[in-house]
Write a structure and sequence with these properties.
single chain, about 220 residues, alpha+beta, four-stranded antiparallel beta sheet, 6 helices, 8 strands, elongated
Amino acid sequence: MTSTENKNNPQGIIVLGVNIHCEGCANEVSKCLRGFEGVEGVEIDGKNNKVSVKGKMADPIKVTERLRKQISGKHVELISPKPLSKEEKKPPEAELFEVVLKIYMHCEGCAKEVKHCILKMKGVQTVDPNMEKNEVCVKGIMNPHKLVEFINKRGGRHAEVVKKTSVNTLGKQNKEDARSKMKKSKDDAAASTTSHDQLRLVYAPQLFSDENPNSCSLM
C-alpha cells in the first residue's frame, strides 16, 4: 500500500451502505471481504444496512469496488471516509500580447509577405506592418520569442522584439485606473457640494448687518 492509499483511510474504518435483508446476505458480504487486501475485520449491521470494514491499510475505493463486483444486484455505497477529491488545476490564463517587431521591409511586397507569414502562426490575431519604420505590430495569444523563431524559420527573415506589452495586465490596470477615477470624481463631487453648502451659510444675507441695505435696524 502506498502512502496515498493510507491517507484515504486515516481512521482505519470503512463504512459501506449495503442492503442486508437476511442472514444469507450478511454471510455473503462477510465472506467477500474477509481476507481482502488490508481488511482486518468485518462487522455487519443488518438493521441499519451498514457494513464496517476494519483495517488501516484497506483502501475504501478498492473495498467498495470489490463488493460491487463480487455481489451483483446489490447497491453498495461508500459512506465514509469520503474519497479525497483531486484538486482541479485551472489552466493558466492565456496571455494576450501586443508585440512590436523590427523587420527590414524595402517594399510593399515585403510588407505583405511578412504579414501573410505571421498570420499563419497559431494565436496571432492582427498584424500591422509599418514599412516606413520597418516595424510590425502583432497582437495575439502567443509567446513573443517563439514568434521571432517562427518568422526566422518560416519567413527566412531576421526579426527582433522592440517592445512587448501584456494586454491582459494592461486591461486590469485600465480597470483599476477607471475605478480610481470614478472614486475620485465621487469624492470631488461630494467635496464640491459640501463647499457650496458652506459658502451659502457663510454668505447668507445678514438681517442685522450695516452692509445689507434691506436689513432691519434696531432702534
